[in-house]
Amino acid sequence: MKKQRRHCLYCGAEITKKSEDGVLRDYCPCCNSYFYNNPLPVVSTILDLNREILLVKRDRAPFKGHWCLPTGFAEAGESIEQAALRELQEETGIKGRISRLLDVDSYKSRFYGDLLFLTFIVEQTGGKLAAGDDSAQAMFWSVSKLPPLAFRSNTRALTAYIKSKKDYWSILDSIENKDENKSPKSVAKNSLTKRLLNIILKNKEKIIYQWMEEMTTSTTTAEYHKYESRKLYIICDKILSQITLWLCGLYDVNQMKSFYTKLGRERKKADFKISEVLSALSLIRKHIWTFALAQDALQKKLELYMTFELQRRMTVFFDLATFYLTRGYEENR
Asked: How large is the C-alpha radius of gyration of the chain?
């Protein structure tokens, strides 16, 4: 149980309670000082290797013997990202790089009081897997066989992560299934599709954030400057998901017609200029293409073919999206 403050840190006088801004706080009448109980920042990391998540088995209370994500308190003098990577290395021996912040959650602990959990997705950059001082064991668990986790916030973050990856994993599984009993030519085509997908999916977060940055500064998308970051993120994430499904033949013209015609009507109703809506769409293509070229895609003949194939498929997708979006916009006149 978290210990209560009994004496003033400055003069040693007995602490009382006094209301400030409608909140009952610890108060020292001698020093005329209030004491604040702010939530402690806790960092966790998700490292995914081929659908296996790195977990550690706790070697101390609370929840000794239970599994959790690499988790620990941030310390003074370090950024929250540095804290996440430090805890990852201390508990598992793995060095990493932050990909993005996935989840923020509030949690009330009997041991520590109010906590603020920040969960990051990380990529491994080095190190060797080995349990640290606070961990009895460190190992990768399949996403389909994860044990119960010690902290609710870990469960919440992992659930969100797995949900965000389901479409991608389903696509890869469908390609693998198509490869069985197929001709070498078909298998080669599916392998090409995988490579095209990987360009987009490996850089998905970077594509989204670079698109968001341009969306909120470009003069061609002024209406979108008012949008919240999370709303912009959802828009780009949705369209990138559609593109990956399109590349695998799992998203057809009728689905595009339905989605983009409706989107056009919605943007017209919200008084957006059609030029800004189309500019937002074209900027997504621009940033996808930027990352495709950044993969040294022109170094080999096969990769040259891959680049042209990506361009062809992207052109068809965005031409259809533009057509139906414009048609939906015009229907509301």
From this structure: 25
Of the candidates 274, 281, 251, 284, the residue with the CA atom closest to the CA atom of residue 328: 274
Backbone angles phi, psi at 300, to 5 degrees: -130, 160
The answer to whether residues 39 and 106 touch, using CB atoms and an 8 Å cutoff, is yes
Say what the pTM is. 0.56
Digit-coded pLDDT (tens) for 196-230: 677 777 788 889 999 999 999 999 999 899 888 88
Structural domains in the chain, sorted by start: 1-37 (2.20.70), 40-162 (3.90.79.10), 182-331 (1.10.490.70)
Long-range contacts of 70-74 (CB under 8 A, 24+ apart): 70/44, 70/45, 70/138, 71/42, 71/43, 71/44, 71/117, 71/151, 71/154, 72/42, 72/43, 72/134, 73/40, 73/41, 73/42, 73/43, 74/41, 74/42, 74/43
Distance CA 151, CA 107 (A): 9
Nearest CA to 158 among 106, 198, 119? Answer: 119
State how beta strands 23-28 and 16-20 pair: antiparallel
Q: For position 293, what pLDDT does the model report?
A: 67
Instruction: Give alpha helix (H) positions in 35-183.
Output: 80-92, 152-179
**How many C-alpha atoms does 151 have within 13 Å on its Cβ side?**
31
